[in-house]
């Protein structure tokens, strides 16, 4: 590791690859995230390597690791900031793994309910591969879940635009959590 990166603006997809070739999407990072903070404190030899891909245009600041090691690691404000970042990553990772028993439709419904709060009932979706990765499902499962919600008259979608037509039925997801 040569630098610690600070994402000022944009969205990044961070992926881990196991040495045996297994691919794992680790996280999606948004404004004010830190990239490399997990590696900053890791002493173990890693059997994974990571890649970072910009999902949108992104603005990053890079701090050389020597500067971080020589100056920032003794600064309580910096360490508090890094601890908060690590805490957020741990929580998001735990939630991602906990969602492993949920159906694709359930995950999509929860995601759409969240998006309604920030974007309203007309939602612009990212590409299907990125959305499926974010939800921890396959593109095929995502397509089936979208088709099912459309067939039920809960949503209308075309390309990347989706309109929620029945918010009440969209939120009726109790008992639809596993399987």
List keywords for this structure.
7 helices; disordered C terminus; 27% strand; 179 residues
* Series of H and E elements: EEEEHEEHHHEHHEEH
Order of strands side by side in the largest beta sheet? 4-1-6
Q: Any idea what the shape is?
A: elongated
Radius of gyration: 19 Å
Q: Which structural class should the secondary elements be placed in?
A: alpha+beta
List the helices and strands and how they pair.
Elements: E1 3-9, E2 12-18, E3 23-29, E4 33-35, H1 37-40, E5 48-54, E6 59-64, H2 65-70, H3 76-98, H4 104-119, E7 122-124, H5 128-135, H6 139-151, E8 155-158, E9 161-164, H7 167-171
Antiparallel strand pairs: 1-4, 1-6, 2-3, 2-5, 7-9, 8-9
Helix pairs in contact: 5-6
Descriptive account of the structure:
This protein is an alpha+beta fold. The chain has 7 helices and 9 strands; from the N terminus they run E-E-E-E-H-E-E-H-H-H-E-H-H-E-E-H. A 3-stranded antiparallel sheet has the order 4-1-6. Strands 3-2-5 form a 3-stranded antiparallel sheet, sandwiched between helices. Strands 7-9-8 form a 3-stranded antiparallel sheet.
